[in-house]
Specification:
Length: 504
């Protein structure tokens, strides 16, 4: 029979999870990128393989384990838009349980553990991506589990513990390839805590398991797709430069500013509480955050709604806050500081649910995705078998099941690796207009596939704006000689402007 303490802990975690779910329902939205994974899972379940377009062996996703789980759901009859939020919720429940039990076990302070959970539940980044359809909750769960298991292993040299840690970081690498790099701070932490030959042997075992899993996965990618890395990497990657780092820094500043400095406040509070003593427990989550920041700056950031990639390290910030609250609360005269810090951090997180740039993007993007789904379904009904070229292809391709050329290159190998890409909006820089025209698609969407209540005139597309892919495609007028502007009629009375091929 569960003890009263266990029952109380379960009740706290479930209550906070309920708050997070209500928060998620307020922000409920499946972004367009999620539908790329949904489309691959759909094809996988139907026997077409792990591909975006049947017959084109391109790794159009970077979340292998997530796509496999969604594909399994499709195979038993659960569609991805239904399953993905459920899986995200389960992994988020696991994150809350791990944060709470880890802090509770170490310090026996349910108040500090609850404060850490509150930061997550009231964070719109956590709430949005709890049900956002992508792998963030799963990836964050494995990173957090790796950190917790590393903490538990630091006083032991039992080989099995280290093999399990290696397995967990290996699963993180199957969730996202860069997960393999987060094994490094965990290994460094273990060696720092005990500098012995036996510890070095155990850490080598841990790293060996992780690297073996990642190597096997990489070899499979090379054999199955012909590339050792996911195609989105090639579409987004730039050589290291000050311009890339500066963009990553600017986007990082958007995250910090959106939460009015709360992430920095958490780290400062932990540093003041622990006085940065070597014995402080927070060095491991802090090093994971540091590793993430290095990665984030190197790739130049990401502009998904509510700072998608930052979700991965939110549990690390929660652990740091919990540690800070515990230390401050250890002295009665400083307990008021602990309460004030916890309430301030929770308040700074919760305000971003109701205000700010990201708050406004949610309904705007929801309208776009709903329109793209309707456009895709209409195209499939009115023009079965058509070939389509578009930017922002997720929902359009998922709903239509048509062959779709991704003009941004996320799902197209050639465009992802085409020369001439410049640093601009993340994931919207790759292009090759001549290649798209040579593919002779039946329909080409410039800009985003959008639905309008009135017919959009051709002059709109002659004004010179748009993505680099649009500008490249329209350069020289070849598009307008071979295609005419067509107003696709939608069932709700709106129109979707699209260019229809009229001559070769």
């Amino acid at each position: 029979m569960p003890s009263p303490r266990s029952t109380r802990s379960i009740a706290i975690v479930l209550a906070v999870f309920g708050i997070a779910v209500l928060h998620a329902m307020h922000l409920r939205h499946l972004p367009d990128d999620a539908y790329i994974s949904f489309r691959v899972a759909q094809n996988f379940a139907s026997g077409e393989g792990l591909v975006f377009n049947p017959g084109e062996y391109v790794m159009a996703y970077s979340n292998f384990l997530w796509v496999i789980l969604l594909g399994a759901g499709n195979w038993i009859g659960i569609d991805s838009p239904t399953l993905a939020p459920v899986l995200g919720g389960l992994f988020c429940l696991g994150i809350l349980a791990l944060v709470f039990t880890s802090l509770q076990k170490r310090h026996g302070d349910p108040a500090a553990a609850t404060a850490a959970l509150a930061v997550l539940a009231f964070s719109p980044t956590f709430a949005f991506w709890l049900q956002g359809g992508l792998e963030g909750p799963m990836f964050a769960f494995f990173l957090l589990l790796g950190v917790v298991l590393t903490w538990e292993a630091e006083a032991s040299d039992e080989p099995r513990r280290y093999a399990v840690i290696g397995l967990v970081f290996g699963l993180a690498a199957l969730s996202r390839p860069e997960g393999v790099f987060y094994a490094v701070p965990a290994a460094a932490y273990l060696l720092w805590r005990r500098r012995t030959k036996r510890r070095a042997t155990r850490v080598a075992l841990f790293l060996g398991v992780t690297v073996a899993m990642f190597t096997a996965f990489t070899l499979w990618m090379l054999v199955y797709y012909g590339d050792p890395l996911p195609n989105p990497y090639y579409a987004k990657a730039h050589p290291l430069s000050l311009e890339v780092l500066a963009r990553g820094w600017r986007i990082s500043a958007l995250f910090v500013a959106g939460y009015l400095g709360a992430p920095v406040l958490v780290i400062v509070a932990w540093a003041l509480a622990t006085r940065l003593l070597p014995s402080a427990r927070g060095w491991l989550p802090l090093s994971v955050i540091a590793a993430f920041v290095v990665f984030y700056l190197r790739v130049g950031g990401d502009l998904q709604i509510y700072y998608r990639m930052w979700f991965w390290v939110l549990p690390m910030l929660a652990l740091l806050l919990g540690e800070a609250v515990v230390v401050f609360s250890s002295e009665p005269r400083r307990r008021v500081i602990a309460i004030a810090v916890a309430l301030l951090v929770v308040g700074l997180h919760s305000q971003h649910t109701l205000r700010g740039r990201e708050h406004g993007r949610v309904p705007e993007d929801e309208r776009f995705v709903r329109g793209a789904l309707l456009i895709g379904d209409t195209l499939a009904r009115l023009h079965p078998g058509a070939r389509v070229a578009a930017n922002n292809v997720g929902a359009l391709a998922y709903a239509s099941r048509l062959h779709v050329v991704d003009m941004l290159g996320l799902t197209d190998r050639h465009i992802a690796k085409a020369p001439g890409k410049r640093v601009g909006i993340p994931a919207h820089e790759s292009h090759d207009g001549a290649y798209v025209l040579a593919a002779r698609p039946d329909f080409i969407f410039l800009g985003m596939p959008l639905a309008f209540s009135q017919r959009l005139p051709l002059g709109y597309y002659l004004s010179g704006g748009g993505y680099p892919s649009d500008l490249d495609l329209a350069h020289g007028g070849a598009l307008f000689r071979a295609y005419e502007l067509y107003q696709l009629p939608l069932p709700d009375g709106r129109f979707a402007p699209v260019f229809r091929r009229v001559r070769d």
